[in-house]
Amino acid sequence: MKKLSILYVRTSSIDQNLDRQRVQEANFDKVIEDKISGAVALFERPGGKELFKLISMDLVGSVSFWQIDRCGRDLKGIVDFLHFMVERKIPVHFIEQGLSTLNHDGTENPISKMCIAMMSVIAEMNRNMIKSAQKEGIELAKLKGNVFLGRKHGTSEDPLKFLSKSKNRRAMELLKKNYKSVEISKITGLHINTITKVKKLMLVM
């Protein structure tokens, strides 16, 4: 039985350039798409769970990503995923970088391994820089007496303060585990609208 060549694509509210990731989709047997923050571990995403199921059924011949940060934004998450795939002799390809984890004979490619490790570190650094810049922007706005001085009538609440509330933190944990909003509402007592707001802020923080 022929195993599937899979193209995995991911977008979030920050990066919507899906066409670029799908440019070679005609070359693959199946495309799996996620619309979720890259901070969520790959196999915890809806599409990632589908990919994991196909791997468990021994139906996957290869998995391709447009670039390394599509499968994770921190070094540990990327390394854990690649180790999982190498153990199962499933090659992972990164199209933009032209890298593959395995050689044609199924052995691990040491040059690609080194390059992927370096790029994984860069992906994590970029993620941290974005978060740091966002935090600095909020703090600067506070100092200037702008938007984030606290909640006033008719204004928005400071996103960091909003997400730091205990129930909202709990909601974030459950969202990352792919709980449905209705389930989270029952567990935390939060209104569905509040959970929706938490979900939106998670994509940009």
Automatic annotation (TrEMBL):
Classification via InterPro entries: Resolv_N, Resolvase-like_N_sf, SSR_resolvase
Taxonomy, superkingdom: Bacteria
Domain Resolvase/invertase-type recombinase catalytic residue range list: 4-145
SUPFAM superfamilies: Resolvase-like (SSF53041)
MF terms in GO: DNA binding; DNA strand exchange activity
Cited Pfam families: Resolvase (PF00239)
Keyword annotations: DNA recombination, DNA-binding
Protein name from the UniProt record: Resolvase/invertase-type recombinase catalytic domain-containing protein
Protein's organism: Aquirufa nivalisilvae
